[in-house]
Amino acid sequence: MFYNIISSQTRETGYIHFVKKMNFKLINNKNFSFYIGLIIILLNKASFCQNIKPYELLLTEIMSDPKPAVHLPEDEFIEVYNNSDYNINLSNINIQVGSKTFIPESYVLKPDSFFVFWDKEIPALKNTGDTIKILCNKKIIHSVQYKPNMHLSKFKRNGGWSLELVDFSKPCLTNNNWISSLSKSGGTPGHLNSHQEELSAFPIELNSYYPKNDTQLILFFNVPIESIETQYSYKKHNNQALINIPKIDSNSIESISITNVKTCYNVDFDELNLKYGIPKNPKYRDIIINELLFNPEEGGSDFIEVYNNSSNPFDLSRLAFSKKTNETEFEEPFQLKKNPFLLLPKEYYAVCSDKYWLKNTFPKAFNVIESNIPSMNNDSGNIVLLSLSAELIDEVNYKESWHFKELKKNENISLEKINPEHYNIASSWTSASFSHDYATPGYENSNFTPKETIENLFTLKSKIISPNSDGYQDQLILHYKLSNTSWTAKISVINSSGVTLHVVYPNILLGTNGFVNWDGILNNKSTIKPGIYALHIVAYNSKYREKLTKKMIFYVNGKL
Questions:
Q1: CA torsion angle for 337, 342, 348, 349 (degrees, to 10)?
Q2: Cα 119 from chain centroid?
Q3: Is 198 within a domain?
Q4: 325 forms bridges with which residues in the sheet?
Q5: Burial, 207: exposed, middle or buried (Cβ in 10 Å; 0-12, 13-18, 19+)?
Q6: What's the domain count of the chain?
């Protein structure tokens, strides 16, 4: 006695296997082994499902909290939809709710049709939320992590209303794609959903990336991904990709190209070239507070920009903004990122609680992180950058008076640091220029002045100043380089007759090298008139009993 195996395949039902008893005389052991192998192969194949591709069968409606009922039975349910162009036998799939799985009974679901699994058929759906997956051969066909807050209405969140999928063409999207049913019955099980809309095709963006260890790089995207194209092998899960990279040296900066990324809908992707390295712990002033917006328009948001002034990468999730209550105590910390996030050498990032407002208001905004930051007063305040172990990285005690004096109002105008290496004093900060929309979040400041090699003791960056807030030569910048410490200086502006018009600093303590800036504003708050002037410097060193005196001619441009 043996079994004759007949196998056929149709588009509607996939593989169908029949096993028919019949008498069969064995010829030899070789034939016996062949037929036994064939039986095993076909029986194994019979346990597999149809070749269902991702998103050909969709979860389209979920009722996790049916009480108090509106006009539907007090039953939990899950609705599925055949999004393919062929029949699907539901007995070929598994549906997993949390950690529990059930296999549906045999039912052929036609294309463009719904099927509802009711309370008694499915594992319990948690009111607090859970993950539901359609599986085929352990492959995820569709997955949804539902949460109570998907019900934007607190009334509907209380129970009795289902969640419905809005755009079937973008099933991997969750935000704004699952909403409370609009039906007066509380749901639409087995029928067209009450709200159908084609959502905008969100561009694929890389939210963050960092080395998980010295041989793996993890990438986080804004949408679930189907595949990526890169030179190395990888694994993907939802919106994450884990790439196997060559081992990183602890002090090196490496790079990788991501040539394409695909999601569940068609959208273009711009190639990325990512640099990365093992993040270090920053020291004092390795990271600089480089720009502040503390007086936004009504409905706007403050922002704080940081700049990596070192040659090492850092992890922004290990840092926080705060304010000082006294010299040793800090207020509530605001972590820059909840998850690891690389700040590369010489890179800028602006941190703001509303990045969409920031990008709409300042279209040139580049690297922007959305995260809460400490509140900042419009007149003056204190901002500190700390490690999570409360080590001070940088600190600014800003004042509204640091703005360019000729501005009629300071709303939506940021304060920029002229050079990250400058000390945090008034002369090191000024208003962003109008040519950059009065702010430069996430990129080089409009008033940035590079540090140069100085051969003389005192040198002017430029002998021309035009203090009109256009971002060009708005400041008179004095570079100094001294052979030792303990120098103090009186720096004044004099006219052609030698009369002192303005004292920039009556007694400033100088380091061995640095910068002193003047914005052209006199003691009476007026702007210096166009003409020829001199900067008069008298420097003393009490420790070594030295004195230096220098006069440096400069010109003020403008309308006479």
A1: -20
A2: 40
A3: no
A4: none
A5: middle
A6: 5
Same domain, 37 and 62: no
Q: Are residues 502 and 523 in the same domain?
A: yes
- What is the reported pTM? 0.68
Both 517 and 536 in one domain: the answer is yes
Long-range contacts of the stretch 520-526 (C-beta < 8 A, 24+)? 520/465, 520/467, 520/474, 520/475, 520/476, 520/556, 521/404, 521/405, 521/406, 521/467, 525/405
Q: Domain span at residue 438?
A: 279-448
Read off the pLDDT of residues 431-482 as tens digits, 9 standing for 90 and up: 888 778 899 999 999 888 776 654 558 999 899 999 988 888 889 999 988 8
Map tokens 């807030």 to a residue.
469
Nearest to 378 by CA among 401, 362, 408: 401
Q: Other C-beta atoms within 10 Å of 283: how many?
A: 12
| pLDDT higher than threshold 70 for residue 3 | no
CA 41 to chain centre: 49
Give the angle subtended at the CA of 71 by the CAs of 69 and 77, to the nearest 5°: 65
Nearest to 313 by CA among 352, 286, 350: 286
Residues 17-64: pLDDT tens digits? 333 323 333 334 444 444 444 444 443 433 445 789 999 999 999 999
Mean pLDDT of 411-422: 93
Q: Look up the CATH number of the domain holding residue 81.
A: 2.60.40
Min mean pLDDT across 32-36, 75-79, 176-180, 295-299 is at: 32-36
CA gap 218, 212 in Å, rounded: 6
Q: Contact at 8 Å (CB) between 145 and 129?
A: yes
Q: Nearest CA to 430 among 451, 443, 413?
A: 413
**Block residue for tokens 């995207």:** 221
Pairwise CA distance, residues 65 & 405, whole Å: 61
- Report the SS3 class of residue 81: strand
Which has the closest alpha carbon to 143: 87, 98, 209?
98
Preceding amide of 450 cis, omega within 30: no
31 phi, psi to nearest 5 deg: -65, -40
Please give the Cα distance from 381 to 141 (Å, whole number): 53
Q: Are residues 105 and 39 in the same domain?
A: no
439 and 389 together in one domain: yes
Q: Which residue type, as a one-letter code, is found at position 162?
A: S
Q: Is residue 188 in a domain?
A: no
Q: Contact, 330 vs 384, CB < 8 A? A: yes
Residue 156 φ then ψ, to 5°? -75, -25
169 and 220 belong to one structural domain: no
